[in-house]
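[SOLVED] Predicted holo structure with zinc ion

Edit: marking solved, answer below. Original request kept for reference. I posted the sequence and ligand SMILES and asked for the 3D complex as structure tokens.
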Amino acid sequence: MALTIGVDIGGTKIASGVVAEDGRIIDRALRPTPAASPELVAEAIADAAIELAARHPVEAVGLGAAGFVDETRSIVRFAPNLVWREEPLRKKVAELVGLPVVVENDANATAWGEYRFGAGRGESHVVCVALGTGIGGGIVLGGELYRGRWGMGAELGHMQVVPGGLPCGCGNHGCWEQYASGNALVREARVNAAADPASAARLLELAGTPDAVVGQHVTDAAREGDAAALAAFAFVAGWLAQGLADLAAILDPGCFIIGGGVSGAADLFLDQVRADYAARLTGRGHRPLAGIRAAELGPAAGMVGSADLARLR
Ligand SMILES: [Zn+2]
């Protein structure tokens, strides 16, 4: 059975695993992400891969990196949360490990993992939307990962949905991820709690003050019927549905997969997303409705997807 290593390179930790052909993770290795230099990051990735390769007959290594990866899947052009600038990551790691290496954008790798082994199994056209700090986007069309001409495609979170809207970390204003993400959920809950504390009684009981509200508070309070928390979920659900309807107008996917930290609370908002999506979809009533599903693989999707992309390299 062909085994490959998948590596999820985050801002704080490097999660590596040996993945089988059926998507099962059979071994893992974890390293902290060295913040100081690209050389140390490459060495930490290689160190974990060498450890795993000593225990299993692996064929290749797939790296999922949070950044802009070039179309040859070799160079990380820019990573907002790591020290990479025009970083030849593929070459560095391949030289250290002595195995073939491919580099993929982490959201693309996540989408691929869900398409192959998770909520997108059996589909051919899939759009994955991961709600966390921002929105991670990945698109599979006709069974192929869509990367764009220069590898920069599927940055769905940076569609401008509100002209002159909230500032985004990317430098623009009004990006989708400012309205439909984990951060947007928390921001809205804080605003609601500050504006009308009476509507946020349970939320404020959990958090103490509006500024201390975190995502788990919003989820827990919403489950207990807290009006401010439910309103925050409704806000995110509405904007999420609008963006999905816009994406359907362009891509016509068979299903959307909603992942990221917020998807753990899918039962609190996905029904509204489905209803709002159906109400806003162009051509509604005369076309099939795409499925809108919660992701199934959780945080492992990126590792599993990276490993599979290395196998199919
Ligand atoms: Zn943006």
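OP edit: The chain has a mean pLDDT of 96. Thanks to everyone who chimed in.
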